[in-house]
Amino acid sequence: MRTRPLLLSLLSAAIAPSHAFANNAIEEIVVTAVRQQAALEDLPYASYHVSEDSLKQARSLPESLAGIPGVSVQKTANGQGSPFIRGFTGYRTLALIDGVRYNNSVYRDGPSEYFGLIDSQGLSGLELINGPASVLYGSDAIGGTLNLHSKSPTAFENNGFSKQFRQQLRWSSAENSLRSRSELDIGRGNDWGLLAGFSYKDFGSVKAADLGTLATSGYSERSYDIHYKKQLNEDWQLQALYQNLQQDDVWRTHSTIYAKPFAGSSVGSDLRRSKDQQRRFGYLKLIGQNKTPWIDRTEITLSRQEWIEFGQRQRSSSDWVVERFDSRMSGLDIQLHSQLGDHQFTYGLDIYRDLVDTGRRELDSQGQLIRERIQGPVGDDSRFSQGGIYTQWQYTIHDDWQWQIGSRYTWVRASIARFEDPSNGQVASYAQQWNNVSSSLKLLWQPQDSNWQAWFGISQAFRAPNIADLSRFGASRSNETEIAALALSPEHFLTGEASLRWSNLDADSGALWQLNAFHTDIEDYISSTPTGRIVEGLIEVSKANSSNGYMHGFEAIAQWRLNHHWQLKANASWVQGEQSLPDFRDDQYFSRSMPFSGSAALAWNHLGHKVEIELRHNSKANHLSPADLDDTQRIPPGGTPAFTLLNIRSEHPLSSVGNWYLDLNNVTDEAYRSHGSGINEPGRGISVGVDIRW
């Protein structure tokens, strides 16, 4: 392995990403993704916040993350997007909804479409914690953790009985989309509250610069959600949430004959490749302010999530592959907080169990059954359980210094009742269990009466093989087909971080800058490895603990408040990783390595009128892995071209009932796609929306 120095730090700040409007007032953003309710500046984490305003102006949830330092968004299709956070994606990043685990055991190693199955209009904001969080959440929390905050009834916070209706509409020309959100917010203050929302989205075919209309890139989506709060007594509150989302006819156009080449990329041969998906998610949460000498706060959460996926693929021979899976995950999370003098403790346990059923049928061109396979995209009748106990201790050593020490014990068990044995094609079964202890140590320096702050940390993280690793079956990348892999061990990661921050911001003037850097050592990395066989013209691959490596980089943010109305913001990030691979003498780049990227924005705010002009740049992505070089449908020869975008966003009051906004997107009509994506982004267009309440 070629060694690399630990980069000195660039940033992670308690400010929104570049596409969020500036506020006149200094907003204290409270973080809960680290299982604490504390202001960002008081925590040793690289943290970012995306506001509800930013969410409502983005097309979907993946797009709302574009522009955050350390994050790139890959889109296999228009309805399928996934963030890369510090070089990791898929099941090496963790998503939470109100602190409840969203990742399931069918998550894949590559960019997965499942992040697009969350309605961004049903969220009041999100937090991103860059870096590992296995101490708090166990497996998967490596590149970063996203905590998505569902909208809750504001009537619960008001005085007396109140009700409010809200309607949001958004139309976009180049995206060819129409989006609607309707809400009812009703309740009695400090007693009960209910928020019910319904969203409908109709996405037509994207109109891309230079390429024109991208056929089969449209789809439809509908969802509804209900959030209920009830104050049981002075100390205890009950919360209940239910979400239901369905997507219809989402195509992976890049692998079909309808794809359009970009910068030399190739076109697929499939006649059809599409998916229908549905997600149901709910929880009951009991929150207590215990007011005892030993326990200050208790949270007990019971959760249930179901994903249903139905996929159709018609190959060039006109034969069909029809496959499905149904994942049903249940969870229990108990979290406690204690404040004992200068000692603050966060501790608890969590248990999740995922039950997965799958199927696959192969049909001829007339729809007649050729054969029914033993399994679908992953093993049939699978069980995946994980649980852990954790504790985190924060202590003020001195007026200027705090340390935070945490540790977690996790156990994981995977069992697969039915999968296709790669050696003979017969039914086989599998069961295995793993254990892990991960720890972290962080030191926060925060001098009193000073504008400076710094923190340093070292953290362990891990990821256990999941059902998708062990029993994946069928098409993978553009030219690959995958088979089961049973001899897998957990991955291990060790990350060092350092951050330096200076700020003298107030409501009218001042500046802020922060630098953050990280270096992650990787052992037993699980990746797709060629078996040496060619099956139906595709390279056969199987997962293996095939490499060790590293990932390192920096993130930077600067903000200048010129006066009460004007603000200038900028950020930049760079991530690079290398790994040792079988059959390669030299180290190779990790797949879809994020290129250097940055953005700058000038924002104006006066009497509720807001305007922002943003420039965003991505350098050419030419650090390609061997798999990237073969993925010619998504990655052009030599890498994904650089691009620079100009966006102008504005928002204005609409009498006393709400506001309206007008965005000019991709003003220079740049032809571009995010690195690793299977589809180009929209060309020049406008977006118009309204948000009214009565």
TrEMBL record:
Q: What Pfam families does this protein map onto?
A: Plug (PF07715), TonB_dep_Rec_b-barrel (PF00593)
The processes (GO biological process) annotated in the record are: siderophore transmembrane transport
* UniProt-annotated location(s): Cell outer membrane
Is Membrane tagged as a keyword? yes
Keyword tags: Cell outer membrane, Membrane, Receptor, Signal, TonB box, Transmembrane, Transmembrane beta strand, Transport
Q: Which residues form the signal peptide?
A: 1-22
Tell me the PROSITE patterns matching this sequence. Answer: TONB_DEPENDENT_REC_3
- Return the GO cellular component terms, semicolon-separated: cell outer membrane
Question: Can you name one GO molecular function term for this protein?
Answer: siderophore uptake transmembrane transporter activity
Membrane topology note: Multi-pass membrane protein
According to its UniProt record, where is this protein mainly located? Answer: membrane
Q: Does the keyword Calcium apply?
A: no
Please report the stretch or stretches of sequence annotated as the TonB-dependent receptor plug domain.
Answer: 41-145
Q: Which residues form the TonB-dependent receptor-like beta-barrel domain?
A: 314-666
CDD domains, per this entry? ligand_gated_channel
Family recorded in the similarity comment: Belongs to the TonB-dependent receptor family. Hemoglobin/haptoglobin binding protein subfamily.
What name goes with this protein? Hemoglobin/transferrin/lactoferrin receptor protein
Protein's organism:
Pseudoteredinibacter isoporae
For this protein's source organism, the top of the classification is: Bacteria, Pseudomonadati, Pseudomonadota, Gammaproteobacteria, Cellvibrionales
